[in-house]
Design a protein that fits this description.
The structure is a single chain. By secondary structure, the chain is an alpha+beta fold. The chain has three domains: about 5-85, Elongation Factor Tu (Ef-tu), domain 3, CATH 2.40.30.130; about 90-245, Threonyl-trna Synthetase, Chain A, domain 2 (Threonyl-tRNA Synthetase, Chain A, domain 2, 2-Layer Sandwich), CATH 3.30.980.10; about 285-400, Diaminopimelate Epimerase, Chain A, domain 1. The chain is about 35% helix and about 30% strand. It has eight helices and 21 strands. It has helices spanning about 85-110, 135-150, 160-165, 230-245, 255-290, 310-325, 350-365, 385-400, and strands at about 5, 15-25, 25-30, 35, 50, 55-60, 65-70, 80-85, 115-120, 125-130, 155-160, 180-185, 190-195, 210-215, 220-225, 295, 300-305, 325-335, 335-345, 365-370, 375-380. The strands form five sheets. A six-stranded antiparallel β-barrel has the order 2-3-7-6-5-8. α6 links the parallel β17 (about 300-305) and β18 (about 325-335). α1 crosses α2. It is elongated, with a radius of gyration of 35 Å. The N and C termini lie far apart (about 90 Å).
């Protein structure tokens, strides 16, 4: 059994005896008789630190024994100085205490229950069992920061399972039994069983910011940041707003209006572009048909266009084949690629799937489709116009039967 000294906020270091050492993936696991290094658990990340000259990257608890993953082994029986890295510990403790404050207030304000908590090195999330809207989340955030500013002491009490039954708390972990059940009261707004480390005073959390939220399984998942994580988020958000304000030559408070206006202008421009593109494609289809050869009463339109996207090429082929009885073999060279659309008018017996196979073989391309329409693409190559002229002759022979 490892004595847990990390719950004492005054304990920064300790002297510990090495009980066991075993090789593990990523290094060596070291078992101590006592430790100030917190092991991962309860949603909280593990501390990092040092055991003598060995650097600890992770700690975990196994049957009341705490194993420390280190970069080098120590001798069994050796006594070593143990310490945790203070900045990661403070960060993890701030996030964990902030989670308590948010969860307790969510229950008090909205009767919403925390059903999930996850902490990573760069974000933390809480899952709430009820949908909360923007106004409710803003209220939750404001009240959480009032609890922080109140600078209320964190209270911890160790009880047995019988005592626990008589104490009213927000949340009780499942399967708790025995004489060492830990209850924590945080910020004057929350109480629950918890095995993590917490700020001595709620003011040490610094600042709580709900950074994002989404609907999740009928409730709400919210992302939050505390302490320096929240400061960093505020700095990044302010810098982004400043860049946008400069880009739109406006004040920060007018950025949203400027962005919305640009969005409306862009939507109007796209609509106008679609109208003009449709007109252009109609003119182009008429020009192609006017200059096409007829084979057995069906016009054969074979053309290499420049810079048409696949969707534009498709619309052009459709216009050709709906305007007159025709077969359209349309290619477009765009950068290092060639796209093609193969269409036939209703009543034309030629299979475009078969035509696609033939064109793929000539160009080394890939594609396929139905009997009435097919498409494909290939790498651009030298002499494409000459290749296409040969393919046009091949198509005329096929259409003649």
């Amino acid at each position: 059994m490892t004595k847990k000294l990390y719950y004492d906020p005054e304990m920064k270091t300790c002297s510990a005896a090495v009980l066991d050492v075993r090789e593990s993936k990523g290094g060596y696991e070291i078992l101590l008789d006592q430790t100030v290094i917190y092991p991962e658990g309860g949603g909280q990340l593990s501390d990092t630190g040092m055991i003598g000259s060995a650097k600890v990257s992770h700690a975990r608890e196994e049957d009341d024994r705490i194993w420390h993953l280190a970069d080098k082994p120590l001798a069994v029986g050796e006594t070593a100085e143990v310490s945790f890295d203070p900045l990661p510990r403070l960060d993890h403790t701030q996030q964990h205490t902030g989670e308590h404050i948010l969860s307790g207030l969510a229950k008090t304000l909205f009767d919403a229950v925390n059903v999930g908590f996850h902490m990573a090195e760069d974000y933390a999330t809480i899952d709430i069992d009820k949908p909360l809207d923007d106004a409710q989340l803003a209220h939750l955030e404001a009240e959480a920061n009032r609890a922080v500013q109140a600078n209320v002491p964190t209270v911890t009490r160790i009880v047995n399972d019988k005592e626990l039954d008589s104490i009213e708390i927000r949340k009780r972990a499942k399967g708790l039994a025995g004489d060492n059940i830990r209850i924590v009261w945080c910020g004057g707004v929350d109480s629950c069983t918890c095995c993590g480390t917490h700020c001595v005073m709620s003011g040490e959390v610094g600042y709580i910011k709900i950074t994002a939220h989404m609907n999740y399984k009928g409730g709400t998942r919210l992302w939050f940041a505390c302490g320096m994580r929240a400061v960093k988020h505020a700095q990044e958000t302010a810098a982004l707003a400043d860049k946008l304000a400069r880009r739109f030559s406006t004040k920060q408070e007018n950025v949203l209006e400027a962005v919305l206006k640009q969005g409306d202008d862009l939507a109007a421009a796209k609509k106008e572009l679609r109208v003009r593109t449709d007109m252009l494609l109609s003119y182009r289809a008429a020009d192609l048909l006017a200059n096409a050869d007829a084979v057995g009463g069906t016009k054969l339109v074979v053309s290499l266009e420049d810079g048409f996207a696949m969707q534009e090429l498709k619309l052009l082929a459709e216009k050709v084949c709906t305007a007159e009885k025709a077969v359209a073999v349309l290619l477009s060279k765009a950068g290092e690629s060639v796209y093609y659309q193969l269409w036939r008018s209703q009543g034309v017996a030629l299979s475009m799937r078969d035509v696609s196979s033939a064109l793929n073989a000539i160009l080394g391309g890939k594609g396929g489709g139905r009997d009435d329409a097919a498409q494909g693409s290939a790498k651009a190559q030298e002499g494409l116009s000459e290749t296409l002229a040969q393919f046009e002759a091949y198509m005329k022979q096929r259409m003649k039967g």
